[in-house]
Design goal:
Blueprint: E1 2-8, E2 12-19, H1 22-25, E3 31-39, E4 43-52, E5 58-64, H2 67-79, E6 96-101, E7 112-113, H3 116-125, H4 133-147, E8 152-157, H5 167-170, H6 177-182, H7 191-205, E9 214-219, E10 223-229, E11 232-236, H8 258-265, H9 271-280, H10 283-288, H11 294-302, H12 306-330, E12 335-339, H13 340-345, H14 347-354, H15 366-371, E13 378-379, E14 388-391, H16 396-409
The protein binds adenosine monophosphate (AMP).
């Protein structure tokens, strides 16, 4: 099957076309045949980049006024005789669409076929993820408008993998009626990524799902950790929204909630403005004052920039804190897995995080750590380290495509 995997942001449309099917999962023969990104959707100078595997990318700047126009632009490119996508000549060669949907609330614990009811339920979850779900919905609606019921659409939720958390992990210690009335609880995000790397780990070390006891660290522009016991998520750092937990590019992660009132009383701004600061001007950016990009900060820190050095230390300490917490929660783990932009590339952050955890059974091999960059999948702990440390590149799109196939073919989700 050819699956069109779609990830719509408020002003961006990202896609991949993946050739996959049930019989291809086991030997990993499923593969991407095209990918692309349209940024600045809604503007006259949208940035377009479309790439068939093995071909030079098509780049353009054109007016793209909404998500529908963006998808139509991709369709036009796909059907252009000059575009050579393996196995694809027109939209008729696409069998299904898999949408990334950020928030599935309590309702969606696995990927589902999209119909009118599902659409309105996703809409209801928008309240919980106002920055993300409306954009995901725009993508779904645009596909409906363009393709009607001719093509099956599937929603894959970021929150779904964490639906196995026990009550004590997902409930906040606030009056219980806020959960009952307003569904205030921990949901967790990046579920597709945590699930993918845990699955990949299981395949690499050849163990059954029930024996997977790991901590997965998704460290990208957004960051979260997950405690995975017997193959199931039992805790994660992001909460009701993706603001809680680890320090991120521009998000603060955990803070004392009293800071909000304190800053409000100091006249920093309205509650909404303070939340904007916590979401967009904090984290690595806020502490360093120079960048939210780890590469810039590593460079500046090496040149002696104090705030950059401090940002790195706060970032690493927070990750370390959750490793300790989750090791305690799981009574030890088999492995710690680093993934996403920082996790897959930053030798320094991995070293800072793992340093001083030897008594907990975690010994990093500095040489192997240095080798694990640029998308390499590698075990980076010393031979004999009680807890293994792995770098496993994430591939959320592949899991989205596979889930889409499973839903379309009504096959059970094995992982
Ligand atoms: P992601 O959200 O997974 O795409 O991760 C993006 C982030 O990964 C960037 O903002 C950088 O902070 C970080 N990153 C990417 N490449 C490197 C690298 N070579 N070294 C350190 N950090 C990197």
């Amino acid at each position: 099957m050819n699956v069109f995997v779609l990830n719509c942001g408020s002003s961006s449309v990202k896609f991949q076309i993946i050739n996959t099917d049930l019989d291809m999962f086991e030997n990993d023969s499923d593969h991407r045949v095209a990918k692309g990104l349209i940024e600045r959707v809604g503007k006259d100078d949208a940035i377009i980049r479309l790439e068939a595997e093995g071909q030079e990318a098509v780049k353009a700047v054109e007016p793209i006024h909404d998500h529908r126009e963006a998808i139509l632009r991709i369709k036009k490119w796909m059907e252009d005789p000059n575009t050579k996508i393996q196995g694809i000549h027109s939209w008729d060669d696409i069998q299904a669409i898999g949408h990334r949907v950020v928030h599935g609330g309590e309702k969606f614990t696995k990927s589902v076929k999209i119909d009118k009811d599902v659409l309105s339920e996703i809409e209801e979850c928008s309240d919980l993820a106002p920055l993300h779900n409306p954009a995901n919905l725009k993508g779904i609606q645009a596909c409906y408008e363009i393709f009607g019921d001719k093509i099956l659409q599937v929603a894959v939720f970021d929150t779904a993998f964490h639906s196995t958390m026990p009550e004590e992990a997902y409930m906040y210690a606030i009056p219980l009626e806020y959960y009952e009335k307003y569904k205030v609880r921990r949901y967790g995000f990046h579920g597709t990524s945590h699930r993918y790397v845990a699955y990949r780990y299981r395949k690499l070390v050849k163990i059954p799902r029930e024996e997977v006891n790991v901590i997965t660290l998704h460290l990208g522009n957004g960051c979260s950790a997950a405690a995975i016991q017997k193959g199931k998520s039992i805790n994660t750092t992001m909460g009701l929204t993706p603001l809680e937990g680890l320090v991120m590019g521009t998000r603060s992660g955990d803070i004392d909630p009293a800071i909000i009132e304190y800053l409000f009383n100091k006249g920093i701004g309205s509650v909404a403005e303070i939340f904007n600061i916590l979401n967009k001007k904090s984290g690595l950016m806020g502490v360093s004052g120079i960048s939210n990009d780890m590469r810039d900060l590593e460079k500046a820190a090496a040149e002696g920039h104090h705030r950059a050095q401090l940002a790195l230390k706060i970032f690493a300490l927070r990750v370390k804190k959750y490793i300790g917490a989750y090791m305690a929660e799981m009574n030890g783990v088999n492995a710690i897995i680093f993934t996403a932009g920082i996790g897959e590339n930053s030798v320094l952050i991995r070293k800072m995080v793992c340093e001083g955890l030897e008594n907990l059974g975690l010994e990093l091999d500095d040489e192997l750590n240095k080798q694990a960059v640029g998308g390499k999948c590698l075990k980076i702990s010393k031979e004999g380290s009680r807890v293994a440390v792995w770098v496993i590149p994430t591939n959320e799109e592949l899991l989205l495509a596979r889930d889409t196939v499973r839903v379309v073919k009504d096959a059970p989700r094995r992982w």
